[in-house]
Write a structure and sequence with these properties.
Shape: elongated
Order of helices and strands: HHHH
Helix content: 55-70%
Radius of gyration: 15 Å
Oligomer: single chain
Structural class: mainly alpha
Number of domains: 1
Number of strands: 0
Number of helices: 4
């Protein structure tokens, strides 16, 4: 995941749908939050905080690289994906009681 965000992007433009990169950020951080919670089972607030910090850190590092650029909208898309991941964990807990049911939040 880190490599995908930090490797140089192709110099030849690839025709992609408008705002495709935002959908990618959303999906990656949705998956990150879900997998983080399922693997480590931190409190939901910690899952969200770590996911947001990671999304922000990626954008900060990208802004420092000469061949990439940071974008607050990418951070927002990643944060929205992470937020949905946390919401899905809450919904799964209510439905099954089996996803990280060791803590309430």
């Amino acid at each position: 995941m880190v490599l995908a965000f930090l490797l140089p992007v192709p110099t030849v433009p690839i025709p992609l749908p408008n705002q495709f990169d935002k959908m990618v950020h959303f999906g990656i951080f949705l998956g990150f939050a879900l997998l983080l919670h399922l693997d480590r089972r931190p409190r939901l607030g910690i899952t969200l905080l770590v996911s947001l910090a990671f999304a922000g850190g990626i954008e900060l590092v990208q802004s420092l690289l000469p061949y990439r650029s940071g974008d607050w909208r990418d951070f927002a898309a990643g944060g929205a994906g992470a937020g949905l991941g946390v919401v899905l964990v809450v919904l799964l807990r209510r439905r099954t009681g089996s996803v990280g049911d060791s803590e309430a939040s």
